[in-house]
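hiii, so i know i said id send this last week but things got crazy w the move. better late than never?? heres the sequnce for the chain we talked about at the cafe, plus the structure i predicted for it. fair warning i was half asleep when i ran it
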Amino acid sequence: AITNLGSLELVVGSGASDKLLLDAASAATSLTFSGSTGTLELNTVGTLTLANAFAIGANTVKLDGLTSALTANSGISIGTGTITGLGTVTGAITASGAAQITANGGTLTIASAINDSGGALVLPVNGATDILKLNAASAAHTVTFSSTVTLELNTAGTLTIGGALALSTGQGNLGCGYSAPAAKRPYSILS
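okay and structure toks below
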């Protein structure tokens, strides 16, 4: 566990294999990536609460378990990076490039709004048991389903798709009650 008693800054190095792995509840003022290939990984019970805004850029945030949680209430920005795994991400997300937010291994809950300011955010839902759960007003350029998967819009959740909704093998399910056909049928939905 990491406890923030002042102005603790966590830093992930710039090497291709540089990773900060947190195994328990942790808090810091900020976290920065020195390069564009780093990974912040929250192990199965790992959590991180940041006081300041969090810039992912082109890096990766990986959540490994249902109780894994990233909280950055001052906001999260992402360029071409990735948020992946299962657990909960809290803090308004602004995507300025072709970033990806991917449920992988279970349910990934995005508790706050997603703003696709770059018009290129992709929300792929791939694995047979994966659920991407959106709890607030969100926007993305493309949403893709490639198996029997679920995109769930919680009570306050909405999703504006600016590009395409692509459905392929299996069946994609929208949590609002829509069940998509098994064949791939891209839909253009304008916001």
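btw The first strand starts at residue 9 and ends at 12. thought thatd interest u
miss u guys!!
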